[in-house]
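Appendix C. Worked example: Cardiolipin synthase
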Amino acid sequence: MKKYKKLITNRIVVTALLLIIQAVWMVVFLLRLSSYSVWINTAFSVLSILMVLYIIGKDECSAYKIAWIILILCLPLFGGLMYLFWGNKNPSKKMRKRLNEEHHRLVKGFQNDETPIREMRAMDERASGISIYLKNASDYSLYKNTDTKYYPIGELMFRDMLEDLEKAQYYIFLEYFIISEGTMWNRIMEVLERKVSQGVDVRLIYDDMGCVALLPRGFDRYMESKGIKCMAFNPVVPFFAMVMNHRDHRKILVIDGHTAYTGGINLSDEYINIKSRFGHWKDTGIRLHGEGVWNFTLMFLEMWNSYRKEEGKLEEYKPRIHHPAPFTGRGYVQPFSDTPLDNETVAENVYIQILNQAKHYCYIFTPYLIVDNEMKLALSLAARRGVDVRIVTPGIPDKPIVFRLTRSNYSPLLKAGVKIYEYTPGFIHAKSYVCDDEFAVVGTINMDYRSLYLHFECGTFMYQTDAVMELKKDAIATIKKSRQVFLKDCRTGILGGLFDAVLRIFAPLF
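Step 2, the predicted output written as structure tokens:
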């Protein structure tokens, strides 16, 4: 009986049921309404035509527009109304207003020192071009004097996270898409409670949709009762919000302003291979120590202060305040944020610039390969001009349909000379680029439409840091463990090809 009661009260079950009820109600209502009058039926059709014209005129992803146009043409009766309810991929006015106002308020805290970019320009015009673009597009600056450490696996990063958390004296900021109760979270929680008792300011942001099936109801209130300031980002209200886009997909841990962790690793046991869901879980992350951590602190404070105002001056959180000794570190780092508020695909543009400027190789880890024509073209052109482009995707999928969609994109890339590998031991969740022993990006950004267009994401662009070569070494080792995919492996037959084509058309709507 308890098992069924738990199932009935589970938030994900309730959410799914409410969504189904609402969708069915809308379809029945529209069908009944259209049956009363030819005029009403005609009005729906005219609305669909107007929506198609409106979509064509919008300045957004062409693949997204094509998907909606085809859907409206297939469902002329109420396709236009569907777009009105579900087609808007822009954040709500309230969310946009809050976050934009806080971003503009914090801009004064962004570094204005031009020394790092001048030094980089003198060394490499390619790298400085990417850095200047990031500064102009996201406001986040380039830094030196930052030590970088790369983690090829979640277990190693978790070990160091615990050690650094134990050293915290002033504040701890955590921002994660997924938190799941288990060994990993319980050990972190033990440290956080102890640090709160020592007077450390501990703040936690988690994405409500990412945790809807993993955390109990009222988790944020429970954290507050423990002295941990907590916020659930964009709470799920299914009956009133049919579209639950714009999730906080970032993974950020900041300790005392001078140490930060990021990458694909969430706070859940599968990320450190204590729990096995899809074979061996391969993920990557980095640790920053030094001046570059300031960008991550600003990212967290922007999200936090947009919804919860805190007393205190911005200067109190800077890296050198709680670490008076000089920072050291090889190379340059530029942590950046990509949001749906800037009307620009910052992360995708960085990926494309790296591919366009690559001379020798570019190795890529991604759990999903669901990309638009611009990204396909960049990958293909790089391969065709002799760059060794290699992509590693999962060998064991977490979502069968998404895995099928990922594989449906293999063929044109393979024909262009891109090499694709599937990670045989299990699931690869890493989101990493490494190029020419010089550039690298490690972050939270998948190569799919949701990450590139809809979610709040973060990444770290690195130039000639220690982590660049560590990532290359890991990429080579990972490729050796993976199965190479060839064109003959992509044959699906006529029906399979048609099914893949449909998946690719509607991929931007997933």
